[in-house]
Amino acid sequence: MNEPDNKLIHAFGALAELGHEITNRNNFQETIRTSLHLLSGALGIRRGAIARYSRFAHELNMLAVRALGDEFPLTLGLTTEDERQFLAVGLNPIEVAQARVLPFFQVYDASFENKRLELLVPLVVREEIVGAIFLGEKATGETYTSYDKDIVCAMGQHIGVAIAQRNLMAEIERRSEENRQLFDEMRSTYHDTVKAFATAIDCKDKYTEGHSVRVGKFTEIIATELGWGPDETEGAAVAGYLHDVGKLTVERKIINAPYRINAKESAELNKHPGVGYEILQPIHHPYTDVPLAAKYHHERLDGRGYPDGLYDREIPYIAKIVNLADSFDAMTTDRPYKSRRPAIDVVEDLHRNSGRQFAPEIVTAFLSGMFKELNGDDRGRRFRRLLGRDYMEAEGLAEKIKFTLNELAPTTPMTYVAAAGIGDQPIL
Amino acid sequence: MSAQTADQVSTIFAGSYINKLSGEQIEHECRRKLDAGCRELTLDFSQTELVNSIGISILLGVIDVAEKNGAKVVFSEMNEDTVELFEMLGLTKHVTIQ
Fold first, then answer.
1. Count of structural domains within chain A
2. How many CB pairs under 8 A join A and B?
3. DSSP letters of A219-247?
4. What's the whole-model pTM score?
5. What pLDDT does A427 receive?
């Protein structure tokens, strides 16, 4: 084989390796460093550098530098004229003698001259500058031939695409992060708004101040105890915060009546679930069940609730949860016409009404959460913060809850398997 | 790859294939020898059958570092193909051939 054939085979090998390197999902910096090695080794180039272009800073930033010394500038600022010339030349090598007309080259000419740079290759991909390659003298001491320049162009295209891909990925990551931040901000705004609404609702009733906020928190506890995921739990809390939004339209004197309200007033008050649904339904909530929770949180499993007298399975699950949280808060806070009930009485009430008003598995979840806190298995102090330390430390409360939990959810019966000739035997 | 040193003369024995991994090992060893005051660096290619482009680039880097340190670089025991490749790419212009 003659020398050009050998050169071609050697360069072809380098090009193949470069393609492999760039299509592999290696570390980007390492890919560029290897690319510079391959380009240098393909033609026996003694020194060089590959830079990435920042279109925001209008700078070329060196990604890989070989044998150019510490004093070689790692950042080169480009002017508009440089950019125009780069785009006009495209991905073609510019010899140093020609490159000297470029404004940026004049700024760094001393550095380039000192390092015996011979070629500058703008990396232009899809009519966009993505970087540049700087190449020094060949080890043979010969000038670059048109054949050499073709090889440089072919390899430069690969390197340019690698940089463009990296830029694209970085842009996608940046936008994704921006979207995530925006989403978080919107979510935070939504929750702040929900809490502000809850506070506004509670302001109508001086005796039940904080009721909506507490119901939101009790609802959140139940959802957590039921093993719901973070989004569903958050949605449940929102449903709890807003369940009484319909009360905004009920006259204050009815809500604040320091006596048991009469039938007419009761009828007026009982409109609030439907009104709440009308208020919430047109809002595009991230959690679809929020309006349903407002509408049906006074329904009971036995069909004796309102507004529609629904039975068990007809009642949306979230409304069953809010119903328990709402009732629990009503029993455990002072009202104008009666004081809060002792904790043990409340647990008895939940037990007695389980399967009538409340869904048994929801009562179980709620009491389990309470028991874990009393038992020290949950150190979150969620109930103590909402109900007060003294209330939670009522004598015999933990035992009462334990008993109730056993009644509501007895231990799973032992599983039997058939054993030939012996009869059914328990698995020990 | 292996190496031996005597009187500021170090000999590094290259492996059968000089690529990125083995090339970087050679480069690391050469830099270590030069930092230790080596004045003559001999690269023994008696086992070398193939050198790829990355290997060429790394050897050019070794030559550059040796020049900056004022050390002499000797290439020895190259086979015919390796000589041909190094001549074609100009490496032989910067080293002593043995």
1. 2
2. 74
3. HHHHHHHTT--HHHHHHHHHHHHHTTGGG
4. 0.63
5. 40
Reported as a single tens digit per residue, the pLDDT across A250-273 is: 887 887 777 778 888 888 888 999
- Tens of pLDDT, residue by residue over A287-313, are 778 999 999 999 999 999 999 999 999
The radius of gyration of chain A from alpha carbons, rounded to an integer in Å, stands at: 37
Chain A interface, Cβ < 8 Å to B? 3, 6-7, 10, 13-14, 17, 34, 36-38, 40-47, 66-67, 138-142
pLDDT, tens digit, for every residue of A189-204? Answer: 888 888 888 888 888 7
Instruction: Give contacts of A46 with chain B, Cβ < 8 Å.
Output: 60, 64
Distance from the B60 Cα atom to the nearest Cα atom in chain A, whole angstroms: 6
CATH number of the domain that residue A384 is part of: 1.10.3210.10
Q: Which domains does chain B have, with CATH numbers?
A: 2-97 (3.30.750.24)
Domain holding A312, by residue range, is: 205-417
A43 contacts B54? CB cut-off 8 A: no
Nearest to A245 by CA among A265, A275, A289: A275
Q: Are residues A44 and B52, on separate chains, in Cβ contact within 8 Å?
A: no
Confidence category of residue A422, pLDDT binned at 50, 70, 90: very low
On whether the CB atoms of residues A222 and A321 are closer than 8 A, the answer is yes
